[in-house]
Amino acid sequence: MYVGIDVGTSMVKAAAFDESGRELAVETRPVRLSLHDGFVEQDMEEVYAAVVGVLSALTAVVPGPVELAGLTGQGDGVWLVDDEGRPVRAAASWMDGRAHELVDQWLADGTFETVFRRTGSAMFPGCPGPLLAWLDRYEPAALDAAATALYCKDMVFQRLTGIRATDVSDASMPFLDPRTRRYDNRVVELLGLTHRRGLLAPVSDPLATGQARGEGLPSGTPLANGPYDLPACALGAGVTAPGDGLLIVGTCLASLVGTTDLDLSGEPAGLYISTDRAGYWLRAMPAMVGTAALDWVLSTTGVRHDEVDGLLAETPPGAHGVRVLPYFAPSGERAPFVEPRLRAELTGVCLESTKADLVRATCEGIGFAARHCLEAAGLTGSLAVCGGGTRSPAWMQLLADVLGRPLRVIEGEVGARGAVLAAAERHGVALDADAWTRPARVVRPDAGRAAHYAKAYEDHLAHLHGARTRARR
């Protein structure tokens, strides 16, 4: 069997596949986020214990040797570890907002734009540049005690194999030059981190490989590190050609489009993710909040997830005038624009509004945000969709209508699947990628509803323009 490990923000997963790509079993463990005053952190030991736990459970229920394992996980944030890969403090999550004032400063003085023009990375508060600069200013002892500032999957890889490394995809934000595929020391200098340059993990190009040391996986199991979850999902969904795209409807609403054109002009936003194929990038517009916005509305209104499809059927497109701008993250928004102080807005509500109106308006708002991101990323080809949101058939139909295009729905553990495909490529193991990435179904838009949403999308952009203006005051 082949094993894929996906270390997510709220859930750690391990999936076993056979040679044809059939999913044999999945084990999951939840992990907690600590949120307080804009700080969003995770306990690294809890995350690593969850990884070992899901791997141990998976190899117990699916007998037989593990031919190969691939690792992926959440990107960005700062995971400070010592020489052995053990934490020196809690990990700062990609959702963290503590460094927003630094981003505001860099937006004002031109540093933000300069970094984007050099690396294709539009910084946001939860990416390593601002977080490391904030820690250097307010918690220098933590950086002094650390050997490496890793990304999530890199911490797990070091603990499983003893190897200290990252890959070009994780390193893309914000220090990697996408042309040379090496760290840009001028960017490090611009962020005031030259004296911390040694904390950046070595970039392994191609992917780093190692052998498991017996925790979770049998000792000697070949393991490949990376890419991180967004490009891993692109591989798992079969998005490998220029112009084709992927929408991940998960905690983060991520839009990715394949490209061979490195265009660093235009409004600085999102990032270019380097891949194992030199000269091929993923133009990424990872909006901060996807299903997390709906989760908040459901918990606030007391609605269960299994009620969503029914509620979507109870109210028409437009939700009786209720509108939601779904920018719920404490660190604002990062794609397809950067506004650290932008917050969600709920308008058009009256005493006649229902829970169904609120749910539909939220799903529509997330759809409009996805359309904005995909257009900015340059989508011209087919569109695949994956993530937890795909479990709702009604929401998938709504998304197809809002986006005005067919959706290739990829089910199962897409990130873990992509991690295995990347590991197989790295180790020279021949797998049928078409079979591994075949969609479960295709959802096509309704022409009438798509026409309605095309007009509603223009109204959304106008509403968003006003919200961005207010956020800057």
Automatic annotation (TrEMBL):
<keyword id="KW-0418">Kinase</keyword>
<feature type="domain" description="Carbohydrate kinase FGGY C-terminal">
    <location>
        <begin position="271"/>
        <end position="424"/>
    </location>
</feature>
<dbReference type="InterPro" id="IPR000577">
    <property type="entry name" value="Carb_kinase_FGGY"/>
</dbReference>
<dbReference type="Pfam" id="PF02782">
    <property type="entry name" value="FGGY_C"/>
</dbReference>
<dbReference type="InterPro" id="IPR050406">
    <property type="entry name" value="FGGY_Carb_Kinase"/>
</dbReference>
<keyword id="KW-0808">Transferase</keyword>
<comment type="similarity">
    <text>Belongs to the FGGY kinase family.</text>
</comment>
<dbReference type="Pfam" id="PF00370">
    <property type="entry name" value="FGGY_N"/>
</dbReference>
<dbReference type="InterPro" id="IPR018485">
    <property type="entry name" value="FGGY_C"/>
</dbReference>
<dbReference type="GO" id="GO:0016301">
    <property type="term" value="F:kinase activity"/>
</dbReference>
<protein>
    <submittedName>
        <fullName>FGGY-family carbohydrate kinase</fullName>
    </submittedName>
</protein>
<dbReference type="InterPro" id="IPR043129">
    <property type="entry name" value="ATPase_NBD"/>
</dbReference>
<feature type="domain" description="Carbohydrate kinase FGGY N-terminal">
    <location>
        <begin position="1"/>
        <end position="232"/>
    </location>
</feature>
<dbReference type="InterPro" id="IPR018484">
    <property type="entry name" value="FGGY_N"/>
</dbReference>
